Amino acid sequence: MSISAVKEEVVAVLPTTVTPDEKKISKEVTAIEFQAESIIIQDEADYQQAAEFGRTIKQKAAEVVEFFKPMKDSAYKAHKEICDREKMMLTPLKNAENILKKTMSAYALEQERKRKALEEEMRRKAEEEANRKIEEAIALEEQGKIEEAEAAMLDAQITDSVARGATLVVEKPKAEGVSVSKDWEIVSINDAIVPLKVAGVTIRPVDEKAVMRLIRASKGTVSIPGVVYKETAKMSFRR
């Protein structure tokens, strides 16, 4: 799949050379700067003249702003139009990315669900085998076969230990340029029963960001009254 693009050059209509009016204003403001450096105030009259000169500076600054306003307005308008057109093109791509992330996330979560189900099935079978060996050990002991009973009980203990720690390692879905991390999202919040604090963190009035920080910090193990959340797969793409 490929996307071809035609490069479009957009140029704001701005003066490319300094106009006579701009040169005139530039000379005037430079002269004002030099004049300000030469001012010495020794009495009240000098002070009044300096104040008057200050008003002249402000007036000239207003003239400069007014002079450049049409150019700034033109540049702003061009920039805004470009940004709007850029957004118009990026929006479908962002929507497509979100759709794809949801689809891939659903697949990754389903694979994890299957792994957990298989792991639980293995654990259940191991527990059943451990219980069977315990019953066998009891039966052997009742028959007076002490050594065989002890051996069967040892097997039962080993099997039970394996059952408790059974973990199925399955390679997660991988694709170049894609990274997947575990995350969680809030499904619902019942404000009426959410506590004031959880693990020392104030979350009332209900602060969803604070709630999410708690969930992530606990790696999805925290239980918060009134808050229902679920595990998700966070997808990100690299170019």
From TrEMBL:
Organism, scientific name: Calorimonas adulescens
Superkingdom of origin organism: Bacteria
Name of the protein: Uncharacterized protein
Keywords: Coiled coil
Entry coiled-coil feature ranges: 108-143
